[in-house]
Amino acid sequence: MKRTGLLTHDACALLLAATGAANAETYGNTDPFEARGLILGDYVLGVQVGIPVDDFKLESFGLMYGHEDYGEAFDSNAIFGLYTSGANGLPEHLVAVTNEIFLEEQQTYDDILFTDTSIVSSGTYWMMALYEVGASPRATHLDEGSVYAYWSNPYENGMPDSAPEVSTQMGADFNYWVNGTIIPAPGVLAALGLLGVLATRGRRVTRVER
Fold it and tell me: How far does Cα 53 stand from its chain's mean position?
């Protein structure tokens, strides 16, 4: 009877360990920067982010808005998106976009949902923002090597599916990030099913022996 109990416990432990493979992850700039940016409306502008894993299901966009040392943040409507990085290293194709959100006051917006849960592979991407009017995301100007990309784009047109001619400058970065979940490999999913069966059988054997 003890042996059966151990089998059930071990199977459950393995099941929980395997389930942990479907981890929620965040990639981007989550440590607060020291300054506040000023971005004009009617521009798509953003920075790079590295996603180090395959089969990453995009779920939401996050940012820090405003800064306590620089007065009130500007109010603005905004749309956020994630673009692939092309052969030239610049934004290319839109893979995920949010609905419009109204930004006001200094605060953290950690869960601006993408309209679709796209699945992406590991690589470099671009976190882009489109503001209706002047906006103030939290930023840094201390890293002279950081690159940001931008192009003119009327706000009412929304995020384009493909980036037009893109310009770049150096010396600024922003507190942007993306949230999502790593999808378990098929072998892990099969193991989950098998371990679930083992756990169920173990419980049944225990009930019979009692």
Answer: 12
